[in-house]
Design a protein that fits this description.
heterodimer, A: alpha/beta, 6-stranded mixed sheet, B: 170 residues, alpha+beta, Cell Cycle, Spindle Assembly Checkpoint Protein, Chain A, 7 strands, globular
Chain lengths: 153, 170
């Protein structure tokens, strides 16, 4: 499985709400229904971003083709555009049973889940990436490290 | 306190808007209140505050805590974030989360049955934000309360927010 990572500039480049909207655009710019679902959870998403939970615990999109880890970048890096990668992700398909995993809030357990009511949005850790190394063409494992989980651009 | 960086006016507006709301959320939680209601309206508040800050039109953000079971004047506490657009800092952007805990230690926390609301006061030249619905509000009476200043909680460039609280005079 291919895993992509994107790093989205947050405060002070964007407000937390605008950062979430940028993430919704990144994931589902071509899919109105999925975009609506994502924008519908802007409030809990913005709280996670404002409290910088997503700086180290990514949003993880699975079931839409490649796995996508979305981090937020804050402070000087966000202002200067350093360590930011907001390039579109090719190959996403949100017509199926996709799921976006959000981290729980680090100090307010249960608050995020109280504000989410859509089966596509799940609070908690995502399942581990599925190794696909039977043919040796991808997902090779060396010393227990799943190389397919490494971030690609 | 976490220092960020000396930034442009746009960056400082964005920074103060987001971190004012972070401060409100910390305050609600530290006061023993349920933050769910506030967080469910986060984006409307953040969009509105960023809009008013860009105009230097936000005067204050006020958190009123009240007892819905009390007849008459039901105010039990109040916290004001008062904006200044002539802050004499060194231009850095920073938030002081510790000031929230200090404030609650001074003001006391509240029974969980208490409710709260957030009210923005704006200058005469401030315009309505392009999104969200806003209605006029009247503050609850602070008769019998005394106001205490704590200090600056958020700053960015020339914009700062100073926190004060009201406590019932015994």
């Amino acid at each position: 499985m291919t895993t992509y990572a994107r790093r989205i500039a947050a405060s002070p480049a964007r407000t937390a709400s605008d950062t979430w909207r940028a993430i919704a655009d990144l994931i589902a710019s071509d899919d109105g229904a999925a975009h609506e679902i994502l924008v519908g959870v802007v409030n809990p998403g913005a709280l996670l971003i404002a409290d910088e939970a997503t700086a180290s615990s990514p949003l993880v999109l699975v079931g839409a083709g490649p796995r996508l880890n979305v981090y937020t970048v804050h402070g000087t890096d966000a202002a200067n555009g350093d360590n930011v990668n907001e390039a579109p992700v090719s190959g996403l398909d949100l017509n199926g049973a996709w799921t976006l995993y959000l981290p729980d809030h680090p100090t307010e357990p249960g608050l995020i889940s109280a504000l989410v009511n859509d089966a596509h949005i799940v609070i908690g850790a995502p399942p581990a990436p599925t190794p696909t190394n039977s043919g040796g063409a991808s997902g090779s494992r060396i010393g227990g490290v799943d190389l397919s989980a490494l971030e690609t651009s | 306190m976490s220092t960020v960086y000396v930034g442009s006016t746009t960056h400082t507006t964005t920074y103060v808007a987001t971190n004012l709301l972070r401060s409100v959320r910390l305050l609600v939680t530290a006061a023993g209140l349920d933050p769910t209601k506030f967080v469910s309206t986060w984006s409307q508040w953040e969009d509105g505050i960023a809009h008013w800050l860009s105009q230097q039109g936000l005067s204050a953000l006020v958190l009123e805590v009240f007892d819905p079971n009390r007849a008459g004047n039901d105010l039990v506490g109040r916290f004001d974030f008062t904006l200044s657009y002539a802050y004499g800092g060194d231009g850095d952007m920073w938030i002081d989360p510790d000031i929230i805990e200090f404030t609650i230690k001074k003001s006391g926390s509240y029974p969980s049955l208490c409710k709260y609301r957030l009210v923005a006061t704006t200058t005469a030249f401030a315009t309505d934000p392009p999104t969200g619905s806003w209605v006029d509000a009247t503050f609850r009476s602070t008769d019998g309360f005394s106001k205490h200043s704590v200090g600056t909680s958020v700053a960015g460039g020339a914009t700062s927010a100073s926190l004060s609280y009201y406590r019932k005079v015994s």
